[in-house]
Design goal:
The complex is a heterodimer. By secondary structure, chain A is an alpha/beta fold. Chain A has six helices and five strands, in the order E-H-E-H-E-H-E-H-E-H-H. In chain A, helix 2 (about 35-45) packs parallel to helix 3 (about 60-70). By secondary structure, chain B is α+β, with helices and mostly antiparallel strands. In chain B, a hairpin with a 6-residue loop joins strand 12 (about 395-405) and strand 13 (about 410-420). Chain B has helices at about 15-40, 45-70, 80-105, 110-135, 145-170, 180-200, 220-285, 295-325, 335-355, 375-390, 450-460, 490-500, 520-540, 570-585, 585-590, 615-635, and strands spanning about 5-10, 10, 70-75, 80, 135, 140-145, 200-205, 215-220, 335, 360-365, 370, 395-405, 410-420, 465-470, 475-485, 505-515, 550, 560-565, 595-600. Classes of the chains: A alpha/beta, B alpha+beta. The interface of A and B includes residues 14 and 105 of A.
Chain lengths: ~140, ~650
Amino acid sequence: MSNKTILIVDDDPDARLGFNTRLKANHYNVIFAADGMASIAEARKHMPDLIILDLGLPAGDGFSVMERLKANDTLALIPVIVISARDPSANRERALKAGAKAFLQKPVDNAKFLAVIRKVLGEKDLTPHLVHDLGEV
Amino acid sequence: MTSPDLELVGAYDYRLVALSVLIAILASYAALDLAGRVTSAQGKARLLWLNGGAVAMGFGIWSMHYIGMLAFRLPIPVQYDWPTVLLSLVAAIVASAIALFVVSRSKMGVIRAVLGSIFMGGGIATMHYTGMAAMRLSAMCSYSAKLVALSVVLAIVISLVALWLTFYFRGETAAWSWRKMHGALVMGAAIPVMHYTGMAAARFTASPSVYGNQSHTINVSSLSVAGVTIVTLTVLGLALLTSFADRRFSLQALELQLKDDFLSHVSHELRSPLTAIYQFVSILADGLAGEVRPEQSEYLRLTLRNVQQLESMIADLLEVTRIQAGKLNIEQQRASLSDAITDTVSMFGGSAAAKGINLIANIAADLPLAYVDPSRVRQVLINLVSNAIKFTAKNGEITLQTRIFEEDPGLLVVEIADTGCGIKPEVSKLIFERLYQATDAGEHGRKGLGLGLYISKELVARQGGSIWVRSEPQKGSSFFFTVPIFSLASLIGPILTNEVKPDDAIAVLVVEMDSQDGWLSPDVRIAMSNVARALLQRCLLPDLDVVLPKMDSGDAQELFFAVACTNKQGAEVMSRRVREQFRRSERLQQAGLTFTVSCDFLPPISRNVNEPMGEFVGHVAAGVQEHINAMMIARSVPA
């Protein structure tokens, strides 16, 4: 049973609702932000245990959100998982360099999605199969 | 002493005046066109366009000026001091360079525009009055201060207008446009205005002697006018032609970029709704939104499977775009093929079992490591295995194997054999072509995009291997692909050959991998050198550079050595270079290897002159094999 809080940052309301249902079913508290600005405000207000971040966002894209999180000593401690429909070949490296713990391509398989979250939250290690698929998380 | 001034009155040759205006217009047109090139170019190309453009434009302005000067006829002979004339050309080119630099910036504020036009106008005025100073005639030249000032102000104002026009028109992408022509007309007409105002400022008074140094004077004939005109037109014409060609070239590049951007945009936009479909269908299927009846659950699983198919087709489309744009990203490193095969087999174990297919991996022990991008090899394996599963019926078998390629010991070959429906011989080559689709696509009857094998072929080729199929209809197919064995020798071979100088002796470099200070005992090292020497004595031509690198990559601790004809000093330089190159080699860094290089020096050797070349080559091959065995023994009993 987990009661950790996850901040979902995505401008697509459908995606937010989808993540919400999936994460609530796995006993996480979920909060939302729909743009870059709001994500920083929400992170400050609630200090979530994890941020799930889309890259294409209004009011500051995912990369600038990570920059702003990094610039703040407290917010810099919150782990970030980037999840995007963008081409991974151009964005995976960049996201990981910017400080993301993992890059997931949309649509992401539910099992993989939850496994990476658990790993990043320190709840459970990845299976060897996923380690190979995702690299170091 | 004063004498009554005898003012010389000049007359204009209007044909030459017209010619000078024409050149000014042409130079302006070139300037407008070139500014666009400078703006869109980057890095070195930008510098090249800036310099070339400045020369062409400066030449145009300068030649307009001199033709204008020649149009002015005085009743006495006029000669020109050519060093001063050349100096004025420099002024014109510098002024043009400043102008092009200013207008090609992304922004042109008021301050930058005013400063730019002061420099440019100043440059043109400098050129004009330097040109006047080049005149050698039996007359005194004096200037009306007011008119000179007016001409300088005109030069600056005209430059400002010219800069503004050029900045405004630089984005014009067509090589020819009426807007650009109008701009060129205004600019081209304005430059002579400044020139003829400057001329009006000059008063020539007859004097008995010629002023100024006359040692470098030249006469300007009508032939040289023609010459200057032709050269100017050629320079400007060439500049415009090059600009036209370059524009076409960069337009093509732009088109390719747009196509690329378009496809990645499309794939992003397709993935977003697909994500929502996947999320909610899987929520329903998992019963997170309420109880689901078995029949409904089956339909939902079916939907999910189709979502996956769509997703992989989008990924394939994007991959093909990358291949065609030459942007396929491959990072080769030292990696184990066996691992990739084992992973793939475990990944497909479930779906093969579900179909009643026996999926087996058959891997030879002690295989050398491959030099590949592991994720790309997995991609190829996944593609081939999923195809095999698709085309193999119940109770069939799929076997994965890897071994050293019989036809080339530098390669590993992977074989994926199935007992499926097989491929007709006439299509077995076609299946690797883009958009080829199997006519009988297994039980689903879905054709898909037909991109998988094409992508696999490209991925394998980019890693230095090849892919092919052997098949018998109704019995099964075997797909093969090769990848290079990781060989330090092939990585550093080119480095060594460049460094070797022919001399009278043999150097043996021993490189011990995965070792900070060498794990071979001195005895073993010397013994190895002797093996190499024996080998070389039999088979080397002493007057050739020889690099004979050998390595075995079956284990973590690896060994290879290089042999080269060189003297002692050369050998030392060489081993130092090898060390440096190793440290700098990104590919070796990626492989995360440590190493030790030691060098042994051997006395001269020679080949038996009577030995035929065929035997000589045979000896090299046999000796290499012998040496591998020697090294294996050396390694299994580390002293």
